[in-house]
Fold this sequence. Notes:
membrane, 0% strand, mainly alpha, 3 helices, cell membrane, elongated, transmembrane helix
Amino acid sequence: xxxxxxxxxxxxxxxxxxxxxxxxxxxxxxxxxxxxxxxxxxxxxxxxxxxxxxxxxxxxxxxxxxxxxxxxxxxxxxxxxxxxxxxx
Length: 88
């Protein structure tokens, strides 16, 4: 296996990781900003107020994007990794 092939597989894996993590990170960012704004406006500084809604938002987005995540990982496996395994 050449260096170019290894770099292509690593690049595809990193791209898949980025695509899979973006919806979850965006949900955490948006919910964190909304909660932070709410806390600043109401002067409520409760630690669980930041944790629980952010966790709920992350779980909802994770649940909603499971099909997309599975398809992305299957495409990575079938299109990039499996052909390399079969050729050797």
